[in-house]
Amino acid sequence: MNDNSSALVLLRKALEINQKAFGPSHPNLGGTCLSIGAAYNSMGDHVNALSYSEKALDILQQTLSPHHHLLAAILNNIGFAHQGLRNYSTALSYYQKALTIQQQCLPPDHTDMAGAYNNMGGCKLSVGEVDEAISYFKKALAIRQKCLHPLHPSMALVYRSMACAYIEKGDYSNAQLFLMKTIEIFQRIPQSNNDDLADIYNQMGNTYQKMENYTDALIFYRKELNIRKKNLPPDHLDHDGICIHVGRKQLVTKENSNAQRSSQTTFEMNEKSYQQAYRSVAIVYKNMGLACTKNKDYSNAHAFYQKTLELEEKFTPPDDYELSVTYSGLGTLHMALAEYSTSLSFFQKSLEIREKIFPAKHPKILKPYSNLAVLYKCMKNYSAALSFFQKALETDSNNSFENQLIRINVYSHLRDIYRLMGDNGMAMLYAQLVVNSSEDRK
After folding, report:
1. 5 falls in which pLDDT band (50, 70, 90)?
2. In whole angstroms, what is the distance from residue 87 CA to residue 72 CA?
3. CB neighbours (10 Å) of residue 287?
4. Are 27 and 5 in contact (CB under 8 A)?
5. What is d(CA 230, CA 277) in angstroms, rounded to the nearest whole number?
6. Is the distance from CB of 406 to CB of 367 less than 8 angstroms?
7. Contact assessment for residue 98 and residue 72, using Cβ atoms and an 8 Å cutoff
């Protein structure tokens, strides 16, 4: 049982006692409900977090001043719960209410306000309003820089937020500056969460890959891999870097049935954790495979993708999105090797999965359509290529930096196909779309 779960058990017992002693609307219950809501938010259970935070607000706003800092804390909790439920506009309104109270009852550079700005930036980033997100993150950073040491653990949160925004914007150099600051802080914190550090190494690898610096990308992916492997079970077998867990069955006897039930529960929790650990390792191998493919190191790319497949086929559901990404990567690899029939098979598998888990015209279907179109172009099947390029353009755009690049790439391919087909009018049309889209992205 983790710390949040343990605290939740104690808090709910306290709430039950207070309800019996004071009734359902006593102010003492408000603080307890607030703490329970915060615990649920930390555990990712935003529905229960919202329920208890709203109870806290109903109770405490009857007795506290409208400008009391506890009301700001409750409103922030409600906003966080809505953000977790992807109700971003609602979340933003609660964060703004919390910030208004904080501005009235706290000093102008209080760190609580930095937290509010950071949360508001997170909402803006989630809906694709990157420049506004960066504006909020800068406000959070300015406050924390005034009152905290540059290497204070709380600085890592806003540094990482800034990095995520710059990644979304396609400004990878600035993203790396903030990621390196985050790494420096995490490396100085005793017993810091290694999974968080692995996530940052992953982001660094991804940014280097976007910048076509595949050597440095692989360096950070290997750092990430070293951490991810530490979460694997102690009895895994490692054959050429491929880790496969050796499962164990528990025997239950009359004499130790209670102990064994408890042990079985722990075992099942560990199994779930180990499965996630294997999936995380698989994703690292997949990223390394992609970096090697783009670096034209096809032998190592194939080896990494095989490691990915071996893990995902054991620990990932057959219709999982990550498996579709692996199939897409293998399709790209075999297309680069001019093994078109094999490439086609993998691209079709990737598309089949995404069509099952996403609605028609979802942005996540843009990539497999584009991949199939490029493949058919390589095979000189221009009619099929045009069909899939058109499907790619008909998908909904979420205006992410990556999707913008894909669309520009689609326009470029369409320009080339129409030139090859002798249709200069259509070729000129798509050539102009390439120019216009590139200028819009600047």
Report:
1. confident
2. 19
3. 24
4. no
5. 9
6. yes
7. yes
CATH 1.25.40.10 placement within the chain? 1-100, 107-192
259, with CB counted inside 10 A (0-12, 13-18, 19+), is: exposed
Q: Which two tokens stand for residue 273?
A: 């954790």
Structure tokens of 297? 């190191």
Dihedral pair phi/psi, residue 237, rounded to 5°:
-100, 140
Tokens 């080896």 belong to residue = 303
Selection from 53, 116, 126 nearest residue 45 by Cα: 53
Give the CATH superfamily of 107-192. Answer: Tetratricopeptide repeat domain (1.25.40.10)
pTM, full prediction = 0.80
Question: What's the chain's length in residues?
Answer: 442
Distance from C-alpha of 105 to C-alpha of 95, rounded to nearest angstrom: 15
For the record, the structure tokens of 295 come out as 């670096």
Amino acid 244: pLDDT: 42
**Nearest CA to 387 among 405, 399, 374, 378?**
374
**What pLDDT, in 10s, does the model give residues 124-140?**
999 989 999 999 999 99
The amino acid at 427: A
pLDDT at 441: 60
The domain 1-100: what is its CATH number? Answer: 1.25.40.10
Q: Which helix (H) or strand (E) holds 239?
A: strand 237-239
